[in-house]
Amino acid sequence: MVTDREPHDVPEGSVDALQHYFDTQHEFLSWLGIEVEQLGDGKAVMSIPYQTKLTNKPPSGQESEGRDPIQGGVASTLVDVAGGMALRPYLDDPLEDSLATINLNVNYLRPATGDLRAEAQVVRAGGSVGVSEVLVTSETPDGAEEGIAYGTGAFRLFSGR
C-alpha cells in the first residue's frame, strides 16, 4: 500500500456509531440491511444478508428451484460503500470528514445466492484521492464461500472541512 497520509486510530465505538448512522440516517443502506463488521488498518469488512427483495426474479414470476440470484447493483453498492469505508481512517476525522466516489469499476464473477460479504483494502491514500480494492463473496448452494464480484474505487477525500 502506498500512502501520502498516515491512518488515524479509529476511535473506540466507531463501528457501532457507523452502524447506527446507516440504520437510522441512511434509508437506502438501511433498506439493504448493510452491516459494518470491521474497520481499521486500511481495511473494512461489511455485509448484506440475503433477502428475496434484493433478487432478480424471472419475468414470468415463476418460482425457481433454488434461491434467485441477488441483483448485481447490490454487490456494486457494497463495493462502493466498503471501499470508501476502508479509507475513513485516513481522513483527519474518520467519523465526521467526508469522501465521494469519483470512479467505480465492478467485475461480476458469478451469481450470488447467499449473504454478501465485502473485504475492502486500501491501495493508496493520497493527499486528496484514495483508491481501494474490494472482493465481494457469497456462500454457494454447496456451502463454499466464493468471490462473486471484484471492484476498485477511487474516492475524493475531504479532510478538515
Automatic annotation (TrEMBL):
Keywords carried by this UniProt record: Hydrolase
| Pfam families assigned to the protein according to its UniProt record, in alphabetical order | 4HBT (PF03061)
The segment(s) forming the Thioesterase domain are 72-141
Gene3D superfamilies reported for this sequence: Hotdog Thioesterase (3.10.129.10)
Keyword Hydrolase tagged: yes
Where is composition skewed (Polar residues) in this entry?
52-63
Q: Name one GO molecular function term.
A: fatty acyl-CoA hydrolase activity
Q: Region annotation Disordered: residue ranges?
A: 52-73
Q: Which family does it belong to?
A: Belongs to the thioesterase PaaI family.
Name the chain's protein: PaaI family thioesterase
